[in-house]
Design goal:
This protein is an alpha+beta fold. Helices cover 30% and strands 9% of the residues. The strands form 2 sheets. It has a 4-stranded antiparallel sheet with strand order 3-4-5-6. A two-stranded antiparallel ribbon has the order 1-2. Helix 2 packs across helix 3.
Length: 259
């Protein structure tokens, strides 16, 4: 009877049962096994990635809420220190042309409460501060030849009803006191502005526009709306359907200080 131990490797019989595990470890994985592993990994990735995406968006929403909460506290501290007057949306800059306004005056005016005090809108830097919405897509969208181009972070002031520029010739657009607001729970002071898109200008990144000014808002952050800081001091998600259609027959209900 031939000695099997002397037979060629390909001729040998499989190892005994007790050696089967070691034998399999030595021979490695088959192509089928590798394909099965890859398929399982792909299935798990397909199940986990959407959940991770939702978790990421949830984290951004929480961060945005926190940012706006600090902004609204800055507004209210400003009111206390300035005879009940609210910040205004923009700073006129005649050197840039007639009617030119930088929409970051509100950031400058509350800067002492949320970052460091700034007296010149041209030196404002939004990056790394609470005035930057983590979901905003305005990075590198502000022309660098615009004075103070680094001061925009994706939030804006209710310019149409709560103060456009400090001493506007139209009293309705001049600086306002918080006492004009009779429905503070439903009047927005600050909130998510617009992102780049057809027909949207860079200055829209520093304002929140009421529906009567811009009716169609195709670019909505946070899925169903934007986060707003209200005059009473609370912060909440404003569903876009409500914010853009108003209430009680008034299109600008959530922007108007009085019914």
């Amino acid at each position: 009877m031939p000695d099997l131990d002397c037979a060629p490797a390909w001729h040998r019989a499989p190892p005994k049962t007790r050696d089967l595990g070691a034998w399999r470890r030595r021979r490695g994985f088959t192509l089928i096994e590798l394909l099965v592993v890859i398929a399982v990994i792909a299935i798990l990735a397909g199940l986990l990635l959407p959940a991770l995406g939702r978790a990421k968006e949830k984290a951004k929403a929480i961060k945005c809420t926190s940012n706006e909460k600090q902004i609204v506290l800055g507004y209210l501290l400003y009111v206390d220190d300035n005879a009940d007057y609210l910040p205004v949306a923009g700073q006129p800059e005649p050197s840039m042309g007639a009617g030119w306004v930088a929409p970051s005056r509100w950031f400058q005016e509350i800067s002492v409460y949320i970052a460091r005090a700034e007296t010149n809108y041209e030196t404002l830097v939004a990056k790394g501060k609470v005035v930057v919405c983590p979901t905003a897509k305005i990075d590198k969208s502000i022309p660098k030849n615009i004075p103070g181009f680094e001061g925009y972070g994706g939030y804006g002031h209710n310019w149409a009803y709560l103060g456009y520029t400090p001493e506007n010739s139209d009293k309705k657009l001049a600086r306002q006191t918080i006492s004009i607001v009779t429905k503070p729970v439903e009047t927005a002071m600050n909130g998510d502005s617009l992102d780049p898109g057809p027909g949207i200008n860079w200055w829209d990144y520093g304002y929140i526009d009421p529906p009567s000014v811009t009716r169609d808002y195709p670019y909505v952050r946070h899925g169903k709306g934007g986060y707003y800081a209200w005059v009473d001091g609370h912060v909440s998600l404003g569903p876009w359907k409500e914010m853009s259609t108003g209430k009680e027959g008034r299109l600008d209900w959530y922007y108007q200080p009085t019914p």
